């Protein structure tokens, strides 16, 4: 069977309104004067992964429900302008949107509008199967309709990855994604014992690799029953925003995996891509390119050998 798509991204399309705040948490006040301002742009987790793997030269296709509204046009224009294939299914409740409060140190607080999704929202099964059958790999966002697509994806035989984001290790909503994927990403932010949660994912699901990202502390990789700490990579320019760093890490990791690299090297790709994302203002949607990624990884590996 022809595999014309390297990475099929399901879900996670939407629009963010970026609000720069003087500090986080934000103390109560009647009003704040905001600089550099407030800006709305297309780009949520699925968009960022699609942009990330596309920038690394992987043939990419994005599938999601998107509204017939101004925000939906922003999402469509983003994909059109970047040359990323998009199959959009009408979302009656409108395009997903969020507000991101971004502090001076680049930390963010995201407020997601849950009113856009409906209980009946589904990705068409035939579309899911057709695209998955043409793909080498599928990355599944944890947005509501994607949970119902997991059985059809598994039946096509395509390998799966997912990002559980700030899962606490207990919320049952995340479990179908965690247990269906071959590669699982998550943040260590809400985990009291990351290794225990990571090993439980492997024991209860089918994951071959689990990665827990930990910001400036790097990441933790569980592969072949071995736990490894992956050091953070210092970005070349100052950190301005952490939004999208986890998505960039996943993109870099998947690039390595689809090119046959071992898990530790894939994680290094992810660390470099994630560090680059932290230097990109939240109002932009730029991802690291293939040549820059490989060059930076070579530098990091050379430095680790000399030390």
TrEMBL record:
Gene3D superfamilies, alphabetized: 3.40.1190.20
Highest taxon of the lineage: Bacteria
InterPro entries linked: Carboh/pur_kinase_PfkB_CS, PfkB_dom, Ribokinase-like
Domain Carbohydrate kinase PfkB stretches: 49-285
GO MF term (any one): kinase activity
SUPFAM superfamilies: Ribokinase-like
Alphabetical keyword list: Kinase, Transferase
Protein name, as recorded: Adenosine kinase
Organism: Streptomyces lutosisoli
